């Protein structure tokens, strides 16, 4: 899936993204300790990690946060590598060292944020766990910056085969397989096909409401949807 060397942007979810990449730019701008040798300047240890590595991680964090912010402000078409570089306080060459395009930056943002926002309990076992997950998904899709990223990538994937392949093989297929397995377990369904049908019946209206109707995914709507679908399932 996503690169494993990226920093965890969700380690402190209550911290505003704007402050996070301001801090990151400050770290990235710090000069390397003087060593008299350009090659060794990036290998001086700082807190058990090299100063170069620390600045590199800070720059990546700044780029990821800037991409989120600019997507929300300007939309997918208005998002550019130049704009991301300027907002993050890094050079374009720095961005292209890690990502091929803005799609790849957004994809890494999506996978990192979804890892925590779309989690299940360690051992999901009841319809209440399904209800809680669907509410988390609705909040993610309709309110969070990473949900805007998902919406943008879904839209672009309709026109760009590479984005479609990246999104499905790197994120959506695995997410669906996991969710089908948990829904089957929580509702006591006989097979994956039945669980997939229930999952689709619940999530499809959320995508339609967010992407087509452009209406909020409020809790009352989600509860009504869940009541309709889960009440049709046989008692455990």
CATH level-3 fold name of the largest domain:
Tetracycline Repressor, domain 2
Shape: elongated
Q: Low-confidence runs (pLDDT<50, min 5 residues)?
A: 1-48
How many structural domains in the coordinates?
2
Q: Return the CATH class of the largest domain.
A: Mainly Alpha
Distance between the termini: 35 Å
> What strand order characterises the main sheet?
1-2
Q: What kind of sheet is the major sheet?
A: 2 strands, antiparallel
The level of helicity is over 70%
Write down how many β-strands occur, each being a DSSP E stretch of 2 or more residues.
2
Q: Write out the CATH superfamily name of the largest domain.
A: Tetracycline Repressor, domain 2
Number of helices: 11
Using only C-alpha atoms, the radius of gyration works out to 21 Å
Strand % is under 5%
Mean pLDDT: 82
Tell me what the structure shows.
This protein has 236 residues and is mainly α. It has a two-stranded antiparallel ribbon with strand order 1-2. Strand 1 (45-46) and strand 2 (49-50) form a beta hairpin. The relative contact order is 0.10. Residues 1-48 have low confidence and may be disordered. It folds into two domains: 17-100, Homeodomain-like (Arc Repressor Mutant, subunit A, Orthogonal Bundle), CATH 1.10.10.60; 118-230, Tetracycline Repressor, domain 2. The protein is built from eleven helices and two strands. It has helices at residues 17-28, 38-41, 51-78, 81-88, 92-98, 102-117, 127-143, 145-157, 161-187, 192-213, 219-230; strands spanning 45-46, 49-50. 70% of the residues lie in helices and 2% in strands.
């Amino acid at each position: 899936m996503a690169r494993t060397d990226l920093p965890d942007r969700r380690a402190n979810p209550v911290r505003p993204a704007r402050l996070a990449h301001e801090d990151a730019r400050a770290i990235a701008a710090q000069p390397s300790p003087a060593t008299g040798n350009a090659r060794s300047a990036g290998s001086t240890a700082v807190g058990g990690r090299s100063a170069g590595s620390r600045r590199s991680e800070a720059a990546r964090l700044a780029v990821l946060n800037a991409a989120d912010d600019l997507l929300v402000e300007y939309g997918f078409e208005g998002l550019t590598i130049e704009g991301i570089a300027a907002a993050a306080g890094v050079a374009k060459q720095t961005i292209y060292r890690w990502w091929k395009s803005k799609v790849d930056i957004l994809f890494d943002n999506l996978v990192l944020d979804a890892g925590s926002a779309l989690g299940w309990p360690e051992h999901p076992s009841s319809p209440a766990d399904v209800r809680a997950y669907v509410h988390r998904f609705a909040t993610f899709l309709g309110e969070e910056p990473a949900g805007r990223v998902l919406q943008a990538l879904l839209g672009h994937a309709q026109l760009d085969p590479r984005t479609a392949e990246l999104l499905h093989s790197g994120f959506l297929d695995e997410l669906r397989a996991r969710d089908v397995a948990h829904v089957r377990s929580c509702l006591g369904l006989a097979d994956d096909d039945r669980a997939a049908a229930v999952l689709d019946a619940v999530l499809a209206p959320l995508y339609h409401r967010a992407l087509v109707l452009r209406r909020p995914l409020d809790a009352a709507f989600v509860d009504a949807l869940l009541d309709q679908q889960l009440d049709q399932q046989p008692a455990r």
